[in-house]
Amino acid sequence: MTPSVRRLSSLIGLVVVLALAMTGCIQSDDTENAVYSDPSTTADLGLPDNPRVVALGWSDGEIALSLGVKPVAIYDWMSFGAGAKGVGPWATDQFGSDSPEIISAASAGDFNYQQIKELNPDLILNVRAKSDAKVTDSLKAIAPVVTAPANAPDYAVNWKTQTQLIANALGKSSDGEAQIKQTTDLQSRLRSENPAFAGKTFVWGAKFGSAYGAYLPGDARFDTIAELGFIQFPPVAQLRAQGFFASVPVEKVSSLDSQVAVFAPIGMPLAQLQDDNLINSLPVTRDGRAVELAETDPIVQGMSAGTPESLRYALERITPMLAGAAAKVV
User: Fold this and answer.
1) Which three-class secondary structure state does DSSP give residue 262?
2) What is the percent of the chain with per-residue pLDDT over 90, rounded to a whole number?
3) Helix-strand-coil split of the chain, %, nearest 5
4) Which end of the chain is more exposed for a tag (fewer CB within 10 A), N or C?
5) Residues in contact with 71: Cβ distance below 8 Å, sequence separation at least 6, in sequence order
6) How many CB atoms lie within 10 A of CB 61?
7) 79: helix, coil or strand?
8) Using one digit for the tens of pLDDT, what is the confidence trace for 163-202?
9) Taking the complete model, does pTM exceed 0.85, yes or no?
10) Pairing state of beta strands 201-208 and 211-215?
11) In angstroms, rounded to a whole number, what is the distance separating the alpha carbons of residues 161 and 21?
């Protein structure tokens, strides 16, 4: 699986078993643990005050960290590295002197269950992940597992749902609500400060290899910008969706020609996007209404991480760029 696909739900309902009445500590392999996937439920998982949390889903560990729980291990989907402690630059300092075990993303979601078991987790987070009943069964043989709600697209559970699921499982529901509110309050403020955004069409497009694509509603990159008042460019809605992403055939690159756009490459230098003849042929690019960002730009990383904290970080930085682009719409 390539990094682009990685940057691209789970068992139905909440299974309540005998383990809920017991401690949240590791149990024998023949004992079923809870599979927690309903964000409206705040069942007591019986976790200790300082639970050992193993975070396997995309950004799951960062959300736990923002709630005051330092994961003992993080699956480093975005390859932030051990120096950054497996999280974005907006979150690294929250670990203090502690460091989690970094599980390399090179395996693209293939877990070493013995490694996870040896971490002796009280709780496993696998929320923003690929729906796979076999994986969930293997994980719940080790400890209680938090997964995405039923029918959530792979790797595309809504960031608010992801946050609330993790917060509820950790017994920090109010803290999760507060994290979400801080982000939605910021979106509301930025929307009111930028009335020119209202009703303008928007695309977050990508170039990878010789191909193109666009992020769709349901992905934090699009949804977060849409909350500022932008709307989806209609041609994008006609493209074939693959979860939260739509491929854009070469002959339909005009589908990216919205009133305002953000373009970022995947797996290549920014220069290859900036030198792309098709991207440069679009009026949105020629007229200076496109914001072009490197894959490693913290704004792009923050939007891709899609946590309340990372979205606030990215919004504060990208909004002035969007304002400059929107001002050029005639």
Assistant:
1) strand
2) 80
3) 40, 15, 45
4) C
5) 53, 54, 55, 61, 64, 65, 100, 125
6) 32
7) coil
8) 999 999 999 999 999 999 999 999 999 999 999 999 999 9
9) yes
10) antiparallel
11) 25
* CATH numeric code, 3-171: 3.40.50.1980
Query: SS3 for 47-70, per residue?
Result: CCCCCCEEECCCCHHHHHHHCCCC
In contact, 54 and 121? CB cutoff 8 Å: yes
CB atoms within 10 A of CB 49: 5
**Residue entry with tokens 């709780």:** 123
Q: From 155, 162, 58, 163, select the one nearest 105 (Cα to Cα).
A: 58
Residue 210 is encoded by which pair of tokens? 């010789």
- pLDDT at residue 28 tops 60: no
Domain with CATH 3.40.50.1980 in the chain: 3-171, 184-326
CA distances from 112 to 36, 57, 99, 101, 231 (A): 21, 14, 20, 13, 42
Which SS3 state, helix, strand or coil, does residue 235 take?
Answer: helix
Amino acid identity of 215?
A: Y
- The amino acid at residue 87 is V
Residue 30's pLDDT band (boundaries 50, 70, 90)? very low
Q: Answer positive or negative: Cα dihedral of 196, 197, 199, 200.
A: positive
Q: Which CATH number fits domain 184-326: 3.40.50.1980, 3.30.230.70, 3.30.470.20, 3.40.50.2300?
A: 3.40.50.1980
Main-chain dihedrals φ then ψ at residue 123, nearest 5 degrees:
-155, 140
CA distance 124 to 269: 35
Q: E strands within 113-271?
A: 123-126, 145-147, 201-208, 211-215, 231-232, 241-242, 245-248, 260-265
